[in-house]
Each structure stands twice: as structure tokens, then as C-alpha cells.
């Protein structure tokens, strides 16, 4: 009886973690620190009606404010980008970087992608044996991370914006087959020093690398994902949610789809 009680308690705790308030539980960039989104407690989800490309517009950036100390990076630096798993498995992370004055433009970010990686890069569930929501889909809030090479196209003193996008994640509201929509954050950064400026070197943007290998695929150049490997499929277009008081699920248009998990690469790779 004690064993059954403990099993039931563990399962209920896992459900509680995975169905927490959607405005507080979904993933977001940790480092470099994002602009933030006060309306949605820091998150920016396409299903919530936050359509990107950033969590808040250029006009909300703290760059230039006397109390704000932006991260400074160098051309050619391997910049480590981190985010917390936030109890959600699977999906892809796309990184893109543009001059800050272009940071309200989806077209600009789409033309300046610098890397794709797995969402669960260097992270996974707290208990790998917890299969309540499917193999490897249990809760856990470990730090996930990847690195990318800062392009040589930016001059000294340039303010640039790093876009972090998570898409194709799964187990929406403790539903193993259900996939999340897209989530966006942006961080404003200063470029200073490093390798010589080469404004015409756009090779990285033409062929951005993909680095696979996640908790489900530790020895394979793939990622576990839900719904679609194309981020465009889970933007919900121009549709907006119609929140109903007391109904948390009405706060978002999610799930994107109910495909269950798959393994693969981002579209185009």
C-alpha cells in the first residue's frame, strides 16, 4: 500500500508541474538575459497571441538606459546560450542575430539564422525512469544550452539582437500526444573586439549549422519533437486566443497538433 501511495503521489506531483499556469511555466531564454514580456510574465508564445519575432518590441529594449548593463561579446567568440527545461521535453531551438534596428522584423531574423539545436541539449528529466507521460518525458528543470560562433559581420560598438525560438516541444498540459506552439525571446547585446570585421562574410547565414543530440537521441544527430519540424506550422497565423475567466486552457490556442513524439531534424536539414 505504501508503494502504491508513493507511486500515485509521484504521478500527481508530475502532473502538477506540467499543468502549471501557462503564463509562468513555458520555456524562455536564460542567458543572455531577454528583454522580457510583462503581459505574459516573461514568456512570448504564439498560442498566447504573442507573435514575435521578440518577446517585446525594439521600443521596449533597455539598451541605453543608465541602469542596464548589457552583455558584451566578441566576433568569433563561442557564445554559450542557456535556457531552463521548465518540465517540457523535446523540440528545436533556433538562434538568429540581427542589428537591433532590425529586431522587429521576422524577415531579418529569418535571413540571419546562426544555429539550430535540440531543445533538450545537455539536459533532460530529473528521473529518466519516470514514464508517466511517455519515455523521457517526465518533469525536470535542468539548464539546457548550446553555443554558436558570433558572426564577423558586426562592427565594434554594434548593438545586436539575439533571437531564441523554441518550437516543436511536447506534452502540453500533461497530454503526451499534444505539442506546444512557438516561443520567442530576444536579448540585446553589444559587439566589441574579436576577429576582424568582415561585413561581407554571410556564409554562416547561408548555411547555419544544426547540432543534434538530446536526451532521447544522445548518439544521433537528431532531436525528439512534436507536431512539425517546421516552425511555420505552429505560429497560429493571425489568430488570437479568447481567454475565459477560470479556464486556463482558454489562454492559449495550443496545442499545435496531437502527433505524439517523433525523432528528426529541423526542416531543411
Automatic annotation (TrEMBL):
It comes from the Eukaryota. Keywords: Signal. Gene3D superfamilies: 2.70.50.70. Residues 1-25 form the signal peptide. The keyword Signal applies. This is Chitin-binding type-4 domain-containing protein.
Amino acid at each position: 500500500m505504501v508503494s502504491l501511495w508513493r507511486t500515485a503521489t509521484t504521478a500527481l506531483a508530475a502532473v502538477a508541474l506540467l499543468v502549471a499556469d501557462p503564463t509562468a511555466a513555458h520555456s524562455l531564454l536564460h542567458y543572455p538575459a531577454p528583454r522580457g514580456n510583462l503581459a505574459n510574465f516573461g514568456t512570448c508564445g504564439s498560442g498566447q497571441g504573442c507573435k514575435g519575432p521578440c518577446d517585446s518590441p525594439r521600443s521596449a529594449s533597455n539598451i541605453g538606459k543608465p541602469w542596464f548593463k548589457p552583455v558584451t561579446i566578441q566576433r568569433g567568440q563561442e557564445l554559450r546560450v542557456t535556457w531552463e527545461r521548465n518540465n517540457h521535453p523535446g523540440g528545436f531551438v533556433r538562434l538568429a542575430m540581427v542589428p537591433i534596428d532590425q529586431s522587429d522584423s521576422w524577415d531579418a531574423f529569418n535571413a540571419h539564422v546562426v544555429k539550430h539545436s535540440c531543445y533538450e541539449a545537455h539536459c533532460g528529466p530529473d528521473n529518466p525512469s519516470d514514464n508517466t507521460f511517455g519515455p523521457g518525458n517526465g518533469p525536470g528543470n535542468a539548464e539546457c544550452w548550446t553555443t554558436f560562433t558570433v558572426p564577423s559581420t558586426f562592427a565594434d560598438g554594434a548593438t545586436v539582437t539575439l533571437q531564441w525560438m523554441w518550437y516543436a516541444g511536447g506534452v502540453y498540459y500533461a497530454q503526451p500526444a499534444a505539442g506546444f506552439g512557438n516561443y520567442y525571446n530576444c536579448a540585446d547585446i553589444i559587439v566589441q573586439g574579436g576577429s576582424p570585421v568582415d561585413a561581407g562574410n554571410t556564409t554562416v547565414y547561408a548555411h547555419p549549422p544544426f547540432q543534434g543530440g538530446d536526451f532521447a537521441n544522445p548518439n544521433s544527430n537528431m532531436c525528439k519533437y512534436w507536431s512539425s519540424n517546421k516552425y511555420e506550422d505552429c505560429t497560429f497565423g493571425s489568430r488570437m486566443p479568447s481567454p475565459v475567466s477560470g479556464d486556463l486552457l482558454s489562454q492559449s490556442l495550443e496545442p499545435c497538433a496531437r502527433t505524439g513524439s517523433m525523432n528528426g531534424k529541423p526542416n531543411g536539414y
